[in-house]
Fold this sequence. Notes:
By secondary structure, this protein is α+β, with helices and mostly antiparallel strands.
Amino acid sequence: xxxxxxxxxxxxxYGVTYPSTLELIMVLLGTGIQGMPVGKLAQxxxxxxxxxxxxxxxxxxxxxxxxxxxxxxxxxxxxxxxRRQNNHTGKQVCKPSDLxxxxxxxxxxxxxxxxxxxxxxxxxxxxxxxVSVGTINKTMVHPREVFTGAIKDMAAAVxxxxxxxxxxxxxxxxxxxxxxxxxxxxxxxxIHVLDxxxxxxxxxxxxxxxxxxxxxxxxxxxxxxxxxxxxIS
Length: 233
């Protein structure tokens, strides 16, 4: 008798969109427990996930027999990852604070992450990409890396963003110079750079709102002067 393919084999053959939601949870769990097959355990997990808010999901998962801390964290992490990947799509950005909820988790990273947010003509988010990961105080980025994804998305505009692990969100002269290079490259490609945000766990800085987006508006020495910092709400 021919063995029936398991869920992982079916995913490899048909893609990750093939399984049902219940089967996706079965993949995360791997196995059931004594007296409870993985399908039944997955159904209990699905029931709890459906009924739980984000803030009490872990606590509720741990109440399920057979779900220990490791499996609970794995399930919660998968759900959070999916939320971060998809909850921004189609959201309109009219001002810097509109984007912060979708990128502020990068502020907790110990290395600098350079992010490119692509937008359509209505300034609705298409995709948020990590372009480059650097050291604790610097990341190198080239216009080619920034705009490759934007061209693929047929983006009308982009917003750049990177974190400062130091906690100081005032831009450096390198930050301003990089911004100007991206603005110029975007003009050549017909993709408008709307802003460059610098984020920390305590706040963010909008280069556009401080009049530093265009090279002609303010010289780079002004960056060293005290400027307004907007807090993350």
